[in-house]
Structures are given as structure tokens and as C-alpha cells.
Design goal:
By secondary structure, the chain is an all-alpha fold. The chain has one domain. The protein is built from 5 helices and no strands. α2 runs antiparallel to α3 and α4 crosses α5. The model has no long low-confidence stretch (mean pLDDT about 85).
Length: about 120
């Protein structure tokens, strides 16, 4: 996202007006790929079905954690109390301190750097 796809992902690092941002194109791209794989593999429940199911499951978790919990794209959600979830939240906040392509803290959504986990123990 911070490489060749930055032109699309940049909208996620800036304040946007409205419900959607250009970065949401990735939801359509990955979701469409998942549905296509599931349809192609549904007859025999072959590897394509399970790969598509895995992409869909990750997408659901991503939506819940990233869009709902972290970015509060739905109202009524509070900051989490769980140590691990707070570490995800804090790491993502650190990631968004930069609006630049190469300056952001890098991490996987569910793989949090130890410094954010250690911070929760204080």
C-alpha cells in the first residue's frame, strides 16, 4: 500500500469528506477476487474455494478491527480494553501520524511490534 499502490492508499492517510475514500477500492478488488475464487471452487470445495474463504474471513476481521474499531467508521465504538487490541489501536495511530508514503510506522494489522505490546504493560 505504501509502494506502487500509494496513489490509491494515500486517501486513507488524509481526512476525507463523505463515507467513502479512494482506498475503499481495495475492498472491491480483494472482495471481488475472494468471491470469484469461491465461485470457481465451490463445486468440489477445492483450494480456490478455501483461498477465497480465507480472504473473506480476513476481510471481515479487517473491517471489524480497522474500519469499525480503529477508524470508527461506525458510531458507538469505544477504544478497546484488551491489551492486544489496544496495542493494535496504538500501532495504527502511530502509523497514521505520517501523511507521507515512506514515513509511516510499518506493521501488519494483527502482527503488532513488541514496543506497542510492552507499552500496554505500563
Amino acid at each position: 500500500m505504501h509502494g506502487v499502490l500509494w496513489k490509491i492508499h494515500r486517501s486513507h492517510h488524509t481526512k476525507t469528506k463523505g463515507v467513502f475514500e479512494l482506498n475503499d477500492v481495495f475492498t472491491v478488488l480483494f472482495g471481488g477476487t475472494a468471491v470469484l475464487l469461491m465461485l470457481l471452487g465451490k463445486g468440489a470445495f477445492d483450494y480456490r474455494f478455501w483461498i477465497g474463504s480465507g480472504i473473506s474471513f480476513y476481510g471481515l476481521l479487517y473491517f471489524i478491527f480497522h474500519d469499525v474499531m480503529i477508524h470508527k467508521r461506525m458510531q458507538g465504538i469505544r477504544k478497546p480494553n484488551n491489551k492486544y487490541l489496544r496495542a493494535i489501536f496504538d500501532a495504527h495511530q502511530a502509523h497514521h501520524k505520517s501523511k507521507e508514503k515512506n514515513d509511516a510506522v510499518s506493521f501488519g494489522l494483527f502482527i503488532v511490534p513488541k514496543r506497542f505490546l510492552n507499552k500496554q504493560e505500563d
